[in-house]
Amino acid sequence: MENILFPCWMEINAHNLRHNVEALKNWTSSSLMAVVKSEAYGHGWEAINLLYNFGLKKFGVASVEEAHELRKRGLKGDIYLLGGFFTEEAEMIVEDQLTPVVSSEKELQALERVAEKAGKIIPFHLKVDTGMGRMGFLPQEINEEWWEKWGINHHLTLRGVMTHFASAESDPTYTRFQFNRFLSFLHQFPENNSSWEKHCCNSAAFLSFPEMHLDLSRVGIAWWGVSPWGKGSDLPLDLKPVMRIKARVKQVKTLPSGSRIGYGGTFTTSRETKIAIISIGYSQGLFRNLSNRMEVLVKGRRAPSRGNISMDQMTVEITGIDGVEKGDIVTVVGKEEGEEITIEEIANRANVIPHEVLCSLGKIKNRVIYENHCSVAK
Ligand SMILES: *Cc1c(COP(=O)(O)O)cnc(C)c1O
Q: Which ligand 1 atom is nearest residue 62's CA?
């Protein structure tokens, strides 16, 4: 890890990722999909290769664009298009051998056309909207007429059926209601439903409701050791954080009492104050509303944000922390000596969900994978 001279960078702990993969595999007898939209929740494309090397062979993305990027980078395995697709993108589905999750008649028609043209049979999954109110067919839309047209089709073959929970992390009653609707939907097709891959769980449901795992679970945030509830202590499993963020000190100085700090002067010193200017800001994904609310670790001690976070820098107070010099490395996310700053802490301080913090920090493109001495899993 020596000699890193980026102003700020992300570290990916491959050892912890592998630990999480094993822990999550042991939690279920279902198979697992790694949902890796938004560049693996900000961890970067390389992190997806790590997941593949640790034994995952099914991946979920939001768009054809993301799926294509993964194929271009040589990712093998199944890629599920969880967020549907546009008509013009249907050909790419054949070319990149993607598995589309279909939510509308229009998508089915587009697939049928390209399948016919290519002389191929396209496998697809059906998305049923059991109460999320977003993508998916309503259960009543999958009637006999639908079935005759799309359930038995020369060009398309139905391989799986899924639904998505709206409130798995906060509302068990509603989640059970959606799950029961999903089960009643499936029971309408007893002769087919054993051949389908049936799936509904995201991380929160996967961790809270083992009885809902069915054939396949779509895990996203949990791979990265971050809690979908925003509280690490709520995790029923020992998961370890994978992402660390480091930045360097650009300047150290002492301001007299009564000095304002930063744009808008939102902090005024009430005593002689030692500050460090750190090379990370909102352009690297630290929300500006964390100004005066977050802390970083300097020499293993918490140093609070002072004044507004700027585009590429922020200021922290280091009064009482000795020996800090220009060029020193501070920890924005991660552990240092006894202290730790987690993604969950930042999410709570910014009043957002942990998923948002990860995606935002994904703007940091300097990434270093470390502790990657694990052998490749089968
Ligand atoms: C993003 C997503 C998931 C994963 O959600 P997490 O809360 O990160 O586990 C699962 N299913 C679908 C359809 C998704 O879009």
A: 15
Pocket residues: Cβ below 6 A from ligand 1: 35, 37, 82, 164, 202-204, 218-222, 228, 355
Q: How close is the Cα of 372 to the center of ligand 1, in Å?
A: 26
**151-192 per-position pLDDT tens digit:** 989 999 999 999 999 999 999 999 999 999 999 999 998 787
Q: Where are the beta strands (DSSP E) in the chain?
A: 8-13, 31-35, 58-61, 78-81, 99-102, 122-127, 156-162, 197-199, 216-219, 243-255, 260-261, 267-268, 273-278, 295-298, 301-304, 314-317, 329-336, 339-341, 367-370
User: What are the structural domains, with CATH classification, of the chain?
Assistant: 57-225 (3.20.20.10), 243-377 (2.40.37.10)
Closest CA to ligand 1's atom 15: 82
Ligand 1 atom nearest 168 alpha carbon: 7
Residue 121 CB-density burial (10 A; 0-12 exposed, 13-18 middle, 19+ buried): exposed
List, for residues 241-277, the tens digit of each pLDDT value: 999 999 999 999 999 999 999 999 999 999 999 999 9
> What is the pTM assigned to this prediction?
0.95
- Residue 29 carries which side chain, given as an amino acid letter? S
Residue 378, pLDDT score: 38
If you measure from the C-alpha of residue 368 to the centroid of ligand 1, how many angstroms do you get, rounded to a whole number? 25
Handedness of CA 52, 56, 58, 63 (dihedral sign): negative
